[in-house]
């Protein structure tokens, strides 16, 4: 489905180091979690999901294909980006093209790595980036909202919707709050709001890049970021770019030993990937057979035909029904045959909401 997370941050916060480790580590993790470079700063990585391996083991699948999430390494931002300073226009344009923002914040002290503003204050750094995005949105809406209001007075229905929901976003921005705090009152407002492609409407995950010794528990800087995230209703994760870089090229067994020595149970990158997936309100369903076990991505709330469409547009267009087994039933009953015998294989129609973990087989006719 092409979901992409943009990795942003000020210069010298470890953003590109994390991106490189993310893509290279995933490339090294064998067929389960493949990586492919689309173009120089864009990479797709497999979303780790132990359920896929369990399903494949039962079905004796020859191939395992995880769902994918795209990451884009976006050029570092400087103050004045909203006015075109530095690579401002390119930076803002790249953010507009992604679905969510992974905001890397420097939460480590190192005299050998200069901070662009000569101090380590991740909350201030986050505010700097957010301010530039808000200024860009503010400039856009201060032109669009009056125009929509004028058309609304002339009876234009679409303009009336835009004036309402975008006007709410403009008020928030003028108060120094991001547009993602806007609450559309119905589906029509939600549609118009999404079409506006506001930069601060995108969901944000804060990534606290800490020193190696703080990778397990974090530090005072990361604690401040977590407090900020909680106040905003956002999420945050702790990661050490230095550790993740060391993991690149290690064999899986060696990697696990290294992580345990550092007091970690999994890589920080795995947490970033999973959190990015959750950030977009995505869920996973599976197709399983002897040839392959495969994970597919849909947005939470998707109906069965949309799930079929994630595989191929013909499946959605000619959808008849979906043979569905809950993940827990598939595992407990040792596969499709056992689930069928136990009456756990269900026939679901067009109104069925796909559930995370569903094992599905679609019937269609085109």
Give the gist of this structure.
The chain is an alpha/beta fold and 366 residues long. It has helices at residues 15-28, 50-59, 88-96, 122-153, 157-174, 187-195, 220-232, 241-247, 252-261, 268-279, 304-311, 313-317, 327-332, 336-341; strands spanning 4-8, 35-39, 42-46, 63-65, 68-73, 100-106, 204-209, 235-239, 282-288, 292-299, 319-325, 346-348, 359-364.
Verbal overview:
- It is a single chain.
- The protein has 366 residues and is of the alpha/beta class.
- The protein is 43% helix and 20% strand.
- It contains 14 helices and 13 strands.
- It has helices spanning 15-28, 50-59, 88-96, 122-153, 157-174, 187-195, 220-232, 241-247, 252-261, 268-279, 304-311, 313-317, 327-332, 336-341, and strands at 4-8, 35-39, 42-46, 63-65, 68-73, 100-106, 204-209, 235-239, 282-288, 292-299, 319-325, 346-348, 359-364.
- Helix 7 (220-232) links the parallel strand 7 and strand 8.
- It starts with a strand and ends with a strand.
- The model is unreliable at 26-40 and 84-88 (pLDDT under 50).
């Amino acid at each position: 489905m092409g979901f992409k997370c943009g990795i942003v941050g000020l210069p010298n916060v470890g953003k590109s180091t994390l991106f490189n480790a993310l893509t290279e580590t995933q490339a090294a993790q064998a067929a389960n979690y493949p990586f492919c470079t689309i173009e120089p700063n864009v990479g797709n990585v497999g979303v780790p999901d132990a359920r896929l391996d369990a399903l494949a083991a039962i079905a004796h699948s020859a191939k395992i294909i995880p769902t994918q999430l795209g990451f884009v390494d976006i050029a570092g931002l400087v103050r004045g980006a909203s006015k075109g300073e530095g690579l401002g226009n390119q930076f803002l344009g790249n953010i507009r093209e992604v679905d969510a923002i992974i905001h890397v914040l420097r939460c480590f002290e190192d005299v050998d790595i200069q901070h662009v503003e000569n101090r380590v204050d991740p909350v201030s750094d986050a505010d700097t980036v957010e301010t530039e995005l808000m200024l860009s949105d503010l400039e856009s809406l201060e032109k669009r909202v009056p125009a929509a209001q004028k058309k609304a007075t002339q009876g234009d229905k679409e303009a009336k919707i835009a004036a309402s929901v975008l006007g709410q976003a403009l008020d928030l921005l003028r108060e120094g709050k991001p547009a993602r705090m806007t609450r559309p009152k119905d589906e029509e407002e939600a549609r118009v709001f999404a079409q506006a492609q506001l930069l601060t409407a995108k969901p944000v995950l804060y990534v606290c890049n800490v020193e190696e010794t703080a990778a397990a528990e974090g530090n005072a800087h990361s604690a401040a970021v977590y407090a900020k995230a909680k106040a905003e209703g956002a999420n945050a994760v702790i990661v050490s770019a230095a550790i993740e870089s060391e993991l690149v090229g290690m064999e899986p067994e060696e990697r696990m030993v290294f992580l345990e020595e550092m007091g970690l149970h999994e890589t920080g990158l795995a947490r970033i990937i999973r959190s990015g997936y959750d950030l977009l309100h995505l869920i996973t369903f599976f197709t399983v057979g002897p040839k392959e076990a495969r994970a597919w991505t849909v947005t939470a709330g998707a109906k069965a035909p949309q799930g079929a469409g994630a595989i191929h547009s013909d499946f959605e267009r000619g959808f008849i029904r979906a043979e569905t087994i809950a993940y827990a039933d598939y595992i407990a009953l040792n596969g499709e045959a056992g689930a069928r015998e136990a009456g756990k294989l269900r026939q679901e129609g067009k109104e069925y909401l796909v559930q995370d973990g569903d094992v599905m087989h679609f019937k269609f006719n085109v």
